[in-house]
Each structure stands twice: as C-alpha cells, then as structure tokens.
Write a structure and sequence with these properties.
The chain is α+β, with helices and mostly antiparallel strands. About 40% of the residues lie in helices and about 20% in strands. It has 19 helices and 24 strands. It has a 15-stranded mixed beta sheet that branches. A five-stranded antiparallel beta sheet has the order 15-16-21-18-19, with no helix packed on it. Strand 11 and strand 12 (about 620-625) form a beta hairpin. The chain is globular and about 95 Å long. The model is unreliable at about 1-10 and about 805-810 (pLDDT under 50).
Length: about 800
C-alpha cells in the first residue's frame, strides 16, 4: 500500500516566496512606468525670460487650437496671422512662403494645394561677421494646419506653441553662433505639402544642417519621445545625449512607427538630406483628429517636455562649430546606432554592429546556462522542450483571446465599444486594466499548470527560448529594436546561471540568500527596462490593439518565470485563487467599461453623413461609411439600408450604407476651356476648374474607358504651372487630381494629351456641411461628433474630346 505523506501544519507555504516575488515585480513594473514615463513638471509663466515656460506656451496652444483650421480656411489664415504677430513681437522679421505644390508620392489622384508656410530666421554671430556661407543652421519645425473637424490644440498646436516660446526665449538671450530657423508648415495634414514646398523651393532649405520636428498624436500626459532620426545617426545621437537632460528616446519606437500609416514633416526633411530628430507625445487617441482635441486637453507637462528638447537643442546646435554640424548629416558618413533611455535617467547608445556582438554573447550565454543546468542535474532535454512549447502556447493563445475579447464586448455594451480613433474607446483605461488582468490570468494559468509538470528550472529555460529567437531575428528584421530582446535576455540568463551555480546550497545558508538576491536583481532590472516600453507601446497602439500589446506582456512574464519559480522553491504551486481572482477582476473591468461606454455630451459618438448629387442626372443619395446607423444618421439613411457603391457619384472610400435623397439645386463645379491646341504629337488643353459654391476640395478624374492601362491619354500635366511629374502613372486605375482649398477664382490645369484620345472629365466639389433639404432635420445632436466631416458632394461630367481650340466654353 502506498504511504500517505502529510505536510506538517507548521510547514511554511512554499508558494509564498514566489507570490511575494510576483508582487515585488508588479510593484517594480508600476514604479518603472510611473517614473520612466512622466514628463517634467510645468514651469510657471513668471519664469526667467531665458527659460522655456509651459505656462507661457500654453497660451499659444489655446489661441491656435480654438477652432478647426485646415489649409485654405479663414481660420487657417487667422492662425497664420497670429503666428506672424507673435514672432514680430519678439523683434523678429517673419515671412510667408506661398506656393502651389503637387503631392506625387502615392500616385493618382495627385494631391495639390496652395500652401503658405511661415518662416523666420534668427541670425547667428557667424552671419553678422559676414561669413554666412560657412555658417551652419538648425531648424525647428511644426505644422499649423489641422484636419477639418479638429481644433488641433495638440496636433499640432502644441508644436506651434513650443516653437513660439522657444523663439521668444532665444530672442531674449545672447545670440548664438549659427542661424536658427523656425518653420511653421501648412498642408501637413494634406500630405506634408508645406514641408515639401520648403525643401524643394525655399533657398533657406539648403542652409539647414539639423532639423527638429515637433508633433503630437493625442493628449495624454505622457513624455515627449524622440522616436525617429535620420540615417547614419551615431554622431547626431552623441550630440543629442550631450544636450538633453532628461531624454526619453528609443530606436525601437521607430521600428514600430515605420509600419504605422502615418508620416510627419520630418520625412521630407530626411529625404532632403538633413540630420533630423522627431519628437512627439501620444496617448488618449480618442482626441487625435477629432473635435475633442481642444485647448483644455493640452497638458502643460507635455509642452514643457517638448520645450526642454527644443530650447536645449537649439542652443546646443546653435553654438556648435559649423563644420561639426555638417558632419551630422547622413551624407557625411558614419554608422547607425541602437539607442534607448533607462527610466529617463541616462541614455544608452552603441553602434548597430555592436548589437550583433551582444546577441552572439546572449546566445553563448544561453548555451552556457543550459550546459550548466545539465551538469548540475537541474535540466533535461525533454523538460526544456516542454517548457519551450508552453511558452509558445502562451504566445499563441493569449493574443488570440485578447483579439477575440474586443469585438465580443459589443454584445455586452449594446453595440459598444465603438472605435473612436485609431482603435481607442472612451474609458480606455478601464478596458486596459481589464485586458491586462485577463492576459495575466491566462499566463498564470498556463505557466502555473505547466510548472509542476515540467519543473521550475526547465520551464524557466524554456520560457527564454522565444527570447533567444527574437534576439537573433531582430538583428535581421529590426536591428534598432534588438536591445528590447537582447538585454532582458542577458539579465535573465545571468540571474538563472547564478541560481544554477548556487542551487546546491542549503536554504538557510548565505549562498541561498545570495541566490534569491541575484534572481530578484535580474528580474527587477528586466522589469524596469521593459515596463515603460510596453506602456508606451500601449499608448501608441491604444486598447483596440490589445492583441498586439499582449505579445510583449507574455514575453515579459516569461522572463520572470525563472525568478518566481526558483524563489518559490521545489514543490511550490500557484494557488487557485490567483488566476481566478485575476479572471474575476478582468470580467469586472471589462463589464464596467462596457456599461460606462455609452455616449453623451462629454463622450460623443462619431459618425458621418454624405450628401451626393449628380448634376448630370439630378439624382441624389445619402451615404454613411459607418457600420450601422444611429439616432443621427438614421434621419438620412434608413435602418434597413444596404451597403452599395458610390461609383455613380464619386469613387471615394469603400462600400457605404446608401439611401435615396431628394435632389437640391446646388451649383456644380465648372471646367472652363481657356485654350485648346493640337500639334502633331500632342494636344494641349488649358482649363480653369472652379466651384461656385466655394468648395473646400475639388476632385477631378478622367472617365474615359480603359484609363487604367498604359494607353491613358495624359502625357503630362501642370497645376497653376506646377508640373505633375508622374502624370502618366495612374495609381487608382484612372488619372486624377485632388485639389485642396482651391481659390475662389479657381485653379488652372494644363493637360498634354494624346491627340486622338477621348477626354471626359468628372469633377466633384466637396464642401463641409450638409445642404438645406426640406423636411430633414440636419441639427447634429450634442452627443455625436463628425468622425471626418459631414460632406456635400456635387459632381458633373465634361466631355472635352471635341472642345475646340480656344472655345472658352464649358463642355458638358
């Protein structure tokens, strides 16, 4: 008969040390996030004149972010005049660069607009001495336009405020050696048009050695992160480290950013060959590009962090040797660096080539720990394999469950949560806690179940296998992010190896205490390094991407499996209340978020309505690109409406919910033939395109059949004399132009065509707001807000095949 072994009642719970270790690591993670991601304290408006004061800068953000101010709008002109006035009050001589620019990066339809950049130059002592040709220049940039529906107090009123306060501080102090240029770009939201205009047409662009760009992607009180640099950045980063007192920067952020569907003006500065640094804060994405981006949402501490970079770097580069500034540019050579800050306390950087050395060291260290474990009789091949499979199972299951939870919550919240912006929702903090608790519950269940069967040592080593793979893989895929896997892996291996060396010591000996101390040090250091990065990733991706942020959380917990299991000791087991408690907490948070996620005046529901009128046929339609209708959109689109195409009106976006609308007499866009000349090889049409309704946007495309093939009739084109270099490369199956904020008298378009090709142009005028339709209440309820903008689209076709030379008439 098998004997029954009873544990004495006074025997200590072997799981308790492991539980205490878990609590310690959790506390370290929270402290690391709180300390490492906090921007500096705000500085009051009565600070010395030579300092950057967020108390002064916030007033600029309030003035800039008062109303939406897209390019070409009257409010855009007001903001521009405000910037000019403030710069003049500092004793500076600002000027405006006006130009027509065409964006060809993404092919047809080519975006075009008239932009007005604001520039000012604070001359350095080198210029005053007459050696301006050898003088260097540093440029600070931010854009002053907004999207049509957003006041843009953060994006990019914060950047404008940062530049204005920095310009004031520099003007109040002694002159620098080099010139400092301040560039306030227009048309950034339309495709970086203002920055493109500056680098291609303004003579000052050739003088710029270093460019600093300031942006915002939300409004949460989070640090301003230096998240992007130009290529060959080793020397540039060395200067950055010397100048900045509290750097928050990581080469891993750019590895994430470059896969995001965003660009900033820095893209143009980098392509122009400038040494470049990009700064932004993000979080609270529900305010990004929405009516909620109001002045009250701007944090002074965010502004202060922006300003601490701007002023320190302007002075540092402004007093540098001009030859040294030129050596920072990518074409001067040099290498790329891996870089990161540690809790904002100090800045680590090393050449990318070193990343390979550290990764190889990590691989050899892993092999050494495994060999040591085998020699000590602590590891088995089957156990390590099982531990690896457990960690891979966690990496597969946990993100999958997180991905399934988000849409499932719609059933709990009566169709909510609704994505507001970039996957974010109202009360996202509650949802985030719910997802975190759910992720931890799953991880604890998986590792806790496997731990007693695989063994603590085998599970600890197996959990590091994905880290080793990630460490080696990152060298090929994302070397800038290699430190994220390399250093936590090395720290974990050092702690695990020390534990194996001391594994034979008795529990009461000093060696045993040393073993626990080494495990705690390696675990807490790894947590302190990773926690702020995971938190910033969550802020960037928002709660809607919980499945993505679950991956680094699973990996991070894998690092702690060893310390927790080995501190807990042999025979320790995860108490059942741990995963159950976490699961109940997750359910409570997620349910609370769903119940709270209704819409009200402070938390409006985003939606949009489009009124489309075909001036040729007189037919009209209501449309919404939302998944379903609500109390507002159902006034226009019936709740039983089906998705259809707007191809008969305008080829914008994907399928939309459509319903018939009563036609309203609205003035259609006009296409006037100014000149029509046919030669032996080409036909040249000079047109004036305008909108009698003063539309904010004019969309033109050729309707002729077969325009998606190389036989497209357009040989070349120009907008107000600005050539469209890729006129014969339609990117969407037809040749087209998107004219933003056209002037009242219209815009001139010149087309060089194949002589015998049929030419039929479709013109659509897009205006913000809806027309007055009898019997329809168009008053937007206070608990809703436009996602993009309620829009009126009026389209008309023009057959110009036989327009006739110099006809001077519209050809319908």
């Amino acid at each position: 008969m098998k004997p029954v072994i009873q544990r004495p009642r006074n025997e200590p719970n072997r799981a308790l040390p492991g539980i205490l270790a878990c609590l310690l690591f959790a506390a370290c993670a929270a402290l690391a996030v709180l300390y490492g991601t906090q921007p500096p304290a705000a500085v009051p408006p009565d600070a010395p004149a030579a300092e950057f004061s967020s108390g002064r800068a916030i007033e600029h953000a309030r003035r800039v972010g008062r109303e939406p101010h897209p390019t070409g709008s009257p409010e855009n002109a007001r903001v521009r005049e405000y910037i000019l006035g403030e710069l003049a009050s500092f004793g500076l001589d600002p000027r405006v660069q006006k130009a027509t620019v065409v964006d060809e990066e993404y092919g047809s339809p080519y975006g075009a607009a008239i932009v007005r950049n604001v520039l000012v130059r604070i001359e350095g002592t080198g210029s005053e001495a007459g050696d301006a040709g050898d003088n260097g220049a540093v440029m600070l940039a931010a854009h002053y336009d907004s999207v049509p529906v957003s006041p843009g107090a953060n994006d990019d009123g914060a950047g404008v405020a940062t530049l204005l306060e920095t310009a004031r501080a520099l003007s109040s102090g002694p002159p620098l050696r080099n010139d400092v240029i301040f560039l306030f770009t227009d048309g950034e939201e339309l495709g970086l048009l203002g920055a493109e205009t500056f680098v291609e047409e303004h003579p000052w662009a050739d003088d710029v050695d270093v460019a600093l760009n300031f942006e915002a992607g939300g409004s949460k009180r989070s640090p301003s992160v230096m998240f992007e640099t130009s290529a060959q950045n080793e020397r540039l980063l060395a200067e950055f480290a010397r100048a900045v007192r509290r750097p928050v920067a990581s080469s891993a952020t750019y590895e994430v950013y470059k896969y995001r569907p965003f660009d900033t003006d820095l893209t143009e500065f980098k392509e122009a060959g400038m040494a470049s640094l990009n700064f932004a804060y993000w979080g609270d994405a529900i305010r990004y590009h929405t009516p909620l981006d109001v002045p009250d949402s701007v944090s002074e501490r965010n502004l202060q962090h922006h300003g601490s970079y701007a002023l320190a770097l302007a002075r540092h580069f402004g007093d540098a040797d001009p030859a040294d500034l030129r050596d920072l540019k990518p074409d001067a050579g040099g290498g790329n660096a891996v870089y990161f800050d540690v809790l904002g306390l100090f800045f680590v950087r090393y050449p990318t080539t070193w990343a390979f050395v550290f990764a190889i060291f990590a691989a050899f260290l892993f092999a050494g720990v495994v060999v040591l474990g085998f020699r000590r009789g602590l590891l088995t091949g089957r156990g390590i394999l099982a531990g690896s499979l457990v960690s891979l199972l966690a990496l597969a299951v946990v993100p999958a469950v997180a991905a399934a939870l988000f849409p499932l919550l719609r059933f709990l919240g009566d169709g909510r949560p609704v994505n507001i912006s970039e996957g974010d929702v109202y009360y996202s903090g509650i949802y985030a806690l719910g997802f975190l608790a759910a992720i931890l519950a799953l991880i604890v269940t998986i590792y806790g179940f496997a731990g007693r069967r695989v063994g603590g040592q085998n599970l600890a080593v197996g959990a590091l296998v994905p880290w080793l793979v990630l460490c080696l893989l990152s060298l090929a895929v994302a070397p800038g992010a290699s430190f994220v896997s390399t250093w936590p892996l090395i720290l974990a291996l050092l702690g695990l190896g020390a534990s194996f060396l001391l594994a034979g010591a008795r529990r009461s000996s000093g060696a045993s205490y040393l073993r626990v101390a080494l495990l705690l040090i390696s675990g807490t250091t790894s947590v302190a390094l990773l926690a702020p990065l995971v938190y910033l990733l969550h802020l960037d991706l928002s709660v809607g991407y919980a499945a993505v942020t679950a991956v680094p959380i699973v990996l991070a917990i894998g690092l702690l499996v060893g310390p927790v299991a080995l501190i807990g000791g042999v025979g320790a087991r995860v108490p059942a209340w741990a995963p159950v408690g976490l699961a109940l907490a997750a359910a409570a948070f997620l349910l609370a978020g769903s119940l709270l996620s209704g819409f009200d005046v402070k938390h409006p529901r985003p939606d949009d309505i489009l009124y489309a009128l075909d001036a040729d046929t007189g037919e009209a339609a209501w449309a919404t690109y939302e998944e379903d209708t609500d109390a507002y959109t159902s006034r226009f689109v019936g709740r039983d409406a089906e998705k259809g195409s707007l191809e008969d009106f305008l080829p914008l976006g994907g399928p939309a919910l459509l319903d018939e609308a009563p036609p309203v007499p609205l003035a259609a866009p006009t296409v006037e033939v100014l000149d029509d000349t046919t030669g032996s090889d080409a036909r040249t049409l000079r047109l004036r395109v305008s909108s009698p309704r003063g539309a904010e946007e004019l969309l033109l495309w050729l309707e002729s059949e077969g325009l998606g093939n190389p036989d497209t009739p357009v040989l070349s084109a120009a907008v107000d004399g600005e050539p469209v270099q890729k006129a014969g490369e339609p990117g969407w199956g037809r040749w087209g132009l998107d004219l933003y904020a056209p002037p009242e008298n219209g815009i001139e378009l010149t087309l060089e065509l194949r002589p015998e090709a049929p030419v039929r142009i479709r013109a659509v005028a897009l205006s913000d707001g809806l027309p007055d339709v009898p019997g329809v209440d168009e008053t937007r309820p206070p608990d809703t807000m436009p996602r993009f903008a309620d829009t009126t689209a009026v389209g008309k076709s023009f057959d110009l095949t036989n327009a006739g030379r110099g006809s001077g008439r519209n050809q319908p």
